[in-house]
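Reviewers of the previous submission asked for a worked example of the structure-prediction workflow described in the proposal, so we include one complete record here. The input consisted solely of the amino acid sequence. No template or homolog information was supplied to the procedure at any stage.
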Amino acid sequence: MRFLGIGDYHSLGDMYWRLARSGHEVRVLVREEEGHDIFRGLVERVDDQSQGLDWVGRDGVIVCETATFGARADDLRKDGFGVVGSSDVGDRLEVDRAFGQQIMADVGMRTAPTHRFRAFDDAIEFIRRQPARYVYKLSDAESSSTQNYVGMLDSGADMIAMLQAEAARCERGVEFVLMDFLRGVEVGIGGYFDGEKFLTPACIDWEHKRFFPGDLGELTGEMGTVVSYRNSQKLFDETLGRIAPLLRDARHHGYININTIVNDDGVFPLEFTSRFGYPGFAICDALHAEGWDTILAKMAFGGSDAFATRDGFAVGVVITVPPFPYEYGYQKLSRGRPIFFDGISMDDDALHFGEVELDGDRLLTSGSIGYVCVATGIGESVQHAQLSAYATARKVAVANARYRNDIGDKLIRDDWETLQRLGWLG
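From that input alone, the workflow returned the following structure tokens.
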């Protein structure tokens, strides 16, 4: 089967590489030059979209990586192509945060108060009138997660200072939201939609977004995650399952996730991700009993209600090199460094690569930010999966590698028991 990937930075490279290793024909269109060396020597790249479309044809599958390609994906589907990724509505759910919150409220979800702004001065005046802790999130698909900010002071003084600093250096128009801060257990729920319905089962996950252990440091997107395909049905029914009619009307084909806060007052959805998440897709893969070829075809063309998954948990640990999560200085500090393995090979199923290239027989760091790979482990309990993931992580050797050493600890210590007490887990 033929698969064509379309994205900015080759973010699903590990998926494409696995498809190619399984005997499929795979080509990828990487739109940003900084991503051209990612998976070089491992996956074939094309330079022109029309060339890729002619090659993949209407019997193949097109995989879109971003939340900016939805309208084009809709057009391709109308033209008979099998496209997995987002949709125009799906993109808006993720990027336009106020719209996403409104949709959640419209289908009966309980949402945190969310306030939309197009000027920093208006937001500063709002906080002065209503001092509290707020979460600042940009409504912009191109913005990095490191630019979001979770307020720390009940007075809102730190948020005001942050907004003043942003206003002083902002050189373009901006749109963002301030969301009331919520305390509770952060948990995500995700599903695979085939244009008509969600395939079963849904995926439940616990992300670790900050750079340092103990949830310290900047927001990175994700430094590691715990995933399971069990115990997810109640949370799915109360959140993600409610938007199935909207996705059906939009002819959405792809993975979509809602991140939530669960506390004694109920479940509060925070935001949509209307595409495969990174490294989420790789950690989910560890629990799949079917290959990506089968799952992508089921999403693209329908005809199935479910896909096969394993019991238990998967833990994924993101391994990075300096200056991740930033780009500045990467060329000098870490790009082109060799990656070695101790007692494991690069094609081991527990390793999922990010920014790498193959130069002869040497695997090197590549790309623009220092996201090397994800080490995964599976087990019947979170503890077993965690031990397996860290055993794999220790077998990867690259200069100045860093990773969090506490992925899953909070879930084991507190959050699983809290979710069970509140009745959200089977």
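The mean pLDDT is 94. We consider this example representative of the routine output the project will generate in years two and three.
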